[in-house]
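LOG
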Amino acid sequence: MNFLIFYFTLVISLILAKLYPYFYYISFFILILPLWFYNFEKFGLFKIKGFIYGLLASIIYFPFLSGFSFSLLNQFPQIFAEEIFFRGYIQNELSKRFNNHLAIIITSFLFSLPHLILSFSILSVLTFFPSIIFGYLYYYSKSIWASSIFHFFSNMFFQLFLIEFLI
């Protein structure tokens, strides 16, 4: 289970980042490591279908584009790296061992744990649920674009509208 080594390295780097902020850069590097040794086709980076799925799902679920702030675009590289690591790498590896639905649930649990490390709150626990949607978008579209775009708009919706009600 090669992916567990990368995952636990990510978790340790995030724990260390709480003490030494430069470890955030290391954690980002760990997130994009699958790009170095995985075939790009595996992520569906060249499939337009995934891009369209991501946009359509975002428009249907988040019809708030009038509140869009271009300053939020700086989140996309981090979101894309998370999706490469969790959906493109971990979910793919788990799908080889378990059925796809269980792989999505396990990946979502693994996705929410680093969020808990960074911010121990109910909001971090709740990342589990949108992660399931990200997993199914990736599963059905076979493209990392679908989950990345929807993840971006989920974060934007959360930051623009929900955070003031939940804090």
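LOG (cont.) second protein
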Amino acid sequence: NQDNGSAQTDIFVADKDGRVDMDAPIIWDFDRITGITALPIDEKTLTITGGRFTTVANQAESKYTYYSRNMAIRRSNVVVDGLEHRVTGEGDHGAPYGGFINIGDCAYVTVKNTVLTGHMTYRTIGSAGEPVSMGSYDISVNRALNVSFVNCSQINDINDTRYWGILGSNYCKNLLYDHCVFSRFDAHKGVANATIRNSTLGHMGINAIGSGTLTVENTTVRGWSFINLRSDYGSTWQGTFIIRNCIFVPARPARVALIGGSYSGQHDFGYTCYMPERITIENLKIDDSNHPEDYQGPAIFTDFNPQMTGDTYVEQFPYVRTREVILRNVITASGKPLRVSDNPFMFRDVKVSKD
């Protein structure tokens, strides 16, 4: 899909004296402020316990008419504990869903011991006039701070490609998965600081743009890459990646890359696009045992721009590339060493340190 972009947006917590909580600092400089909203933070925690819900899937035309039969959380300091949501009756067409748990304009929300369901993927004609798959979510998080999912899972197979990734998020800070089994972690329009630990992620893996620190530890990831920097938002992450004690099971055995993305340097996204300045990878096992005969081994970076093969290529909007990758105990099932990229020119200045 194509659009004209979104307004520059930031969210933060301030106390009664106007002091900003530096665990979620302001990340943008604004030349002009066109709107600001102050929302009170509820002092007492609201706990919602239990509840078994079943959505009978709609049979509407497959268009971007999102259905919102859900629990909408719009106040801060909320705990959802022990909820179960199932979906039944999905057919060969239907309109998408905007999240059974829909969290927005709030802070300090925890969802725990909860079982949810991924939604069937349907296709429509997008804004560019081409067929596209429509995102359909059981969890949606927008303009929210300090949101945690603890000991949560989904009913359907996290590796079943018929179902869309369970989470979609925009404009968030400090997101956490802990002991979760989900098909995807996704930050569309940016997350500042995210942590995924003790979890298993399925076929749509980790997709993100944003800033701060993205930490993934004690986690198994299945997907096209270990972390995919979303190309539709400039494959940008201004900060660092930390990967510890993880397992990567690549979906494409012929071409395996840890960091995925795409950036031509010819499109103005409205902001400077970055790759993580420093990437630390420690105790990573890459299960690339199911590889073809001509397999060359896994790469740190995918080929972000196949056209950039020499100095004659000029980026109109230069990409700020990674400065350093630190590798400690990276093991491949194939026995082949970890390479930098299929595009060595693009990543020629990246310093790779091995302990």
